[in-house]
Amino acid sequence: MTLRLEGRVAVVTGAGAGLGRAHALLLAKQGAKVVVNDLGSTMDGKGENMAAADRVVDEIRDAGGEAVANYDSVATKEGGEAIVAAALHAFGRIDVLVNNAGILRDKSFAKTNLDDFRAVFDVHYWGGVFCTRAAWNPMLEQGYGRVIFTTSVAGTSGNFGQANYGSAKEGLLGLMRTLAIEGAKKNVLVNAVSPGARSRMTENLGIPEDYLAMLDPAHVSPAVAYLASEACADTGVIVTAAAGGFGRLHYFESQGVQFDPHGPASVEQVADAWGRITAFEGMKPSEFGASGRTQDRLATLKRPAG
Ligand code: NAD
Q: Per the record, which residues fall in region Disordered (predicted)?
């Protein structure tokens, strides 16, 4: 099981700058043929500039790698299909899809403009759906695929002013979990990276310069290149990656409380037990995975007494 990517074809969306560029450069260095997708928009998703993708293709070729540019938007069904078609046309297959393209339209929810909300979903959430849907059947048919979504702490923890972005990023995790189940038998593995990196998205957040200096996007890409490789056997995992630090993020259900299952508990019972319902202390591993506590309790009920 190799970490190298010779013979593999990778598509990286939004690869004309920031994290996508770093991922594309590393995947090419690992031996993959790369489709560098980017329509070259501003950070809020306006305008187009083909030079962004072209520059990264030049960088990859100058380093001896193989790459082609694609300028379609991830935010439409036709765009997603055209991006995957670019890989099939140029290189005859698609093995790796890194869903990375993104925009920001930050506003508190009280002030948000719903068109902005939808635009953020169009790129992050629907972009992930459209590109992955186009790549999915070719991956299932060839019995190999690696799909990587890009989520954010704004989704997994919430962040003021990012209701649109955070919910789109969290939506991708719901998509990831089911695709991980549906793809597993065909060796199509689906994971997510939650990055922290210096880019135009993070440059004006008041992060100190010495800290920004450690947040090179290239420090995130090794996680993506690993998830893109044959050597990776995990699916449905969220990997955090920033400044050389890597971790796994997962949701847990607490041990919880079991009332009589034959009738509804009273509101008072729930209120009285609230501390135990919500406490994480004393947890044992669930037979059904870390978030399978409800299934654990149901399984206990089905077992004969004693
Ligand atoms: P970036 O703005 O430098 O890169 C995003 C790229 O996506 C741009 O080059 C842009 O032109 C492209 N893009 C935008 N809309 C597109 C569309 N419709 N079709 C194709 N390409 C499009 O920002 P970045 O920080 O490199 O962000 C990359 C991804 O990582 C995004 O999904 C972002 O939400 C996510 N992310 C970044 C951070 C961070 O710390 N930088 C943290 C969490 C998540």
A: 285-306
Give me the DSSP letters along 24-72.
HHHHHHTT-EEEEE-----TTS----THHHHHHHHHHHHTT-EEEEE--
The verdict on the CB of residue 220 being under 6 Å from ligand 1 is no
pLDDT of residue 140: 98
The answer to whether 165 is a known catalytic residue is yes
pTM over 0.90? The answer is: yes
* 123 in Cβ contact with 74 (< 8 Å): yes
Counting from 1 in the atom list of ligand 1, the atom nearest the Cα of 196 is 40
Question: How high is the ipTM of this complex?
Answer: 0.99
| Residue from 71, 125, 165, 226 carrying the catalytic annotation | 165
* pLDDT interval class at 5 (50, 70, 90): very high
